[in-house]
Amino acid sequence: MARCSCELPSGRFSVVIEFQGVNKWFGSLHVLNDITLSVQPREVVVVCGPSGSGKSTLIRCINGLEQIQKGDLVVDEKRVGDPATNMTLLRTEIGFVFQSFNLYPHKTALENITLAPIHVRKTPRAQAEKDGRELLAKVGLGDKFNAYPSQLSGGQQQRVAIARCLAMRPKIMLFDEPTSALDPEMISEVLDVMVAVAEEGMTMMVVTHEMGFARRVAQRVVFMDQGSIVESGAPEEFFSNPKTERSKAFLGKILRH
Amino acid sequence: MIWQQLESLAGSYPLAMRGLGMTVVLSLIALVFGTLIGFGLGILRIGGSRVLSTVIGAWVDLIRGTPFLVQIFLIFFILPELGIKLDAFTAGIIALTNLNACFICEIVVAGIQSVPKGQVEAALASGLSKWQRMRQVVLPQAMRVVLPPLVGQYVLLIKDSSVVSAIGLTDLTRVGWLVVQRVPNGLLVFFLVGVGYFVVCYPLILLARRLEKRMSAAHGEVQL
């Protein structure tokens, strides 16, 4: 926190997300242990690991849903947690997709999507609605603009949630176990949308155990355990030739099924 | 015989209507201001600074934990000692508004807290400001939980307004006291006073019940 952003080496501007020795504790639990990680523009990074390994916390720190206690975290050239950083403004550049969708139940699919563009970006309502309908069509829900979340299936809700993030035209998209709450038959419809977003060049960090997705679009897989990054590498390399005992044990468990 | 007694009360009819009018006016003013202030307090209790939140919490506890009669006496008799001149009507309005604001504050706080954390996080993550989150995401959903007990609180307010008769305001209850001194059958007088209150309160009770049913059916959208 002590350093000011002007001291950032200029050559590092090609990095969108940078963790430098980041630590976080929940009480006595060391939930992020000396994390150092950088994500390049247009890169797709999949974060996996056993439950409680800190992977959700890791990406929740990026948009300030959780606060880091030690180390440096720079996102889009702004230091997260620095009083000089306008977090509200920074968050408009970061889309966040939740495991439990978190659509606003009192608003229709279209209203969910247009809320932030209208109130935060000050986009005229007509324009926001036009964009919103296009986004809904893009995620395969062009006819559902008037539906309330309670009238949509889990997979449909998650696709609306992704469209809601895209409506802000973010530079980064974060996904926190986006398919974990879904019935198996709905997982692929959500993953297809995520693949499409990745293929358009979005910078993404995705906490998931969907190894098929990782193989298709990720440039890198990061394996976490007990708050630390244990291993990191290209998907093919990581899946076929894990280097540590812990990643071998983890892959053994999730790939067996 | 009942008929005769009712006839003997007929002369008090204009007075009773005045009393009922006073009860309704007092309640209505305290309802409007109490609701506005109560929502303000509830929102600040959750979203304001720690100091503000603690002060509001302490005040609400104090008011909820003391009898209304005591509060109204304090306002009516103590404030003039401090140089603040108050007529009985203003004192009654202040006391009733304050009492209601405090109870409504608690109702609003409970409503806000009932909104799942993920809703606030979603709004936060999309870059909505604190007040936008409250206005667009939290309050509309909190209203589901808030509305039925809010209307219930209005019923209590109307009944609590009877306490203002203690500082000499001629509301429905005080009219009862005045009439009872002139006629033989006090029981009938207060029966009619009770009917007067019930006539005002019953529509609200029905509304509260209707809202409760509506709320469980809606998609979180509040439609009256």
UniProtKB/TrEMBL annotation, chain A:
Gene3D superfamilies: P-loop containing nucleotide triphosphate hydrolases (3.40.50.300). InterPro entries: AAA+_ATPase (IPR003593), ABC_ATPase_HisP-typ (IPR030679), ABC_transporter-like_ATP-bd (IPR003439), ABC_transporter-like_CS (IPR017871), MetN_ABC_transporter-like (IPR050086), P-loop_NTPase (IPR027417). The keyword Mitochondrion does not apply. CDD domains: ABC_HisP_GlnQ (cd03262). Residues 17-251 form the ABC transporter domain. This is Polar amino acid ABC transporter ATP-binding protein. It comes from the Bacteria. The keyword Metal-binding does not apply. Keywords: ATP-binding, Nucleotide-binding, Transport. Belongs to the ABC transporter superfamily. PANTHER family: AMINO ACID IMPORT ATP-BINDING PROTEIN, PHOSPHONATES IMPORT ATP-BINDING PROTEIN PHNC. Pfam families: ABC_tran. GO terms for molecular function: ABC-type amino acid transporter activity; ATP binding; ATP hydrolysis activity. SMART domains: AAA.
UniProtKB/TrEMBL annotation, chain B:
It comes from the Bacteria. The keyword Cell membrane applies. It is found in: Cell inner membrane; Cell membrane. The chain crosses the membrane at residues 20-44, 56-79, 187-208. GO terms for molecular function: transmembrane transporter activity. Residues 20-208 form the ABC transmembrane type-1 domain. InterPro entries: AA_ABC_transptr_permease_3TM, ArtM/GltK/GlnP/TcyL/YhdX-like, MetI-like, MetI-like_sf. GO terms for cellular component: ATP-binding cassette (ABC) transporter complex. It holds the Pfam family BPD_transp_1. It is a multi-pass membrane protein. Keywords: Cell membrane, Membrane, Transmembrane, Transmembrane helix, Transport. GO terms for biological process: amino acid transport. The keyword Cell membrane applies. PANTHER family: BLR6398 PROTEIN, MEMBRANE COMPONENT OF AMINO ACID ABC TRANSPORTER. Belongs to the binding-protein-dependent transport system permease family. HisMQ subfamily. NCBIfam families: HEQRo_perm_3TM. This is Amino acid ABC transporter permease. It comes from Phyllobacterium phragmitis.
